[in-house]
Amino acid sequence: MKKLLLIFLFISGFGFGQISEYAIKLNNLSSAEQAKEVADDIMNGFSSPRKFAEQYVNYEKYIVFKYYDTAIPNEEIEKDMKLTYCKLCDEVKFMRFFRGADKDLGIQGNETYSLKYVSGKYLDLFPWWEKHFAPGVSREKLLETDSNKRYINDRINHINLRFVKNLDDWEIRNAY
Question: In whole angstroms, what is the distance from residue 95 CA to residue 57 CA?
Fold first, then answer.
């Protein structure tokens, strides 16, 4: 019985360690390429395929990756991309900052990216969340009985990831 308890505790601790590692990674991406890999991973879970359209910097503070459903004709995408806020696209936003920077001391720091925000339908965002933070939890259980698995909070490592409903959409948001 003691062996079973030890095995359970080891497996539980190992799973939590992996979750924390990935969440920590999301706050410490060292390049725009790594940020795009995370954005691609999120978009790969969408029920209809998405294609990458563009990457842009917003207010010098954010890098945004824009995707469109592959079923949308190119003419419609071109029109939508000219709007101030796209209506047909999905965007994944990362905060861009310089870790270790100190303006007073003239230290530039290291360019770092952190997942900030993505929104969409619950069923489109669920596969990515389940893959990284709630392995084996069904779509229904994550909504109902295991809703606590929609929050990843670690104050020591400045992690506050949330998979929450906002009006008619769902969003994955990093509050740090």
Answer: 10
